[in-house]
Amino acid sequence: MSSVFTKIIEGELPGRFVWSDEQCAGFLSIAPLSQGHVLVVPREEIDSWLDLPDELAEHLMTVCKTVGQAIDEVFSPKRVGLMIQGFEVPHAHLHVWPTNTIEEFDFDQVDKDPDPEVMDETARKIRGALVAAGHEAHVPQD
User: HIT domain: from which residue to which, for each copy (predicted)?
Assistant: First the structure.
């Protein structure tokens, strides 16, 4: 059975994409730690990040850095957080989000009902920053 992330990547479930390439996709979390929280997910279903082939792990980190730079440009946070915890979905994924405090690393603090219009605008802003940085080939259209 496909993971929820595979269903999002394949279009079976809706997603607000900011990145797409042959190896991975980046889309907004439906339960964000803060506005601009992106999940970077390999297309291949691999449960644990420890099982990722080295080349794929390196690619995911490169995409996280690129998306993180766009998040930094859009939100100007004190830091851009990066976390791998992987308890919710058995499909490796990396969390990238704007953060201003250590308390914003607490998954008990997620927004379980984010405003859809704010989410749409957030995705547009991150995509715009990625395009402005020259990554248009990997930025999906609305």
Answer: 4-107
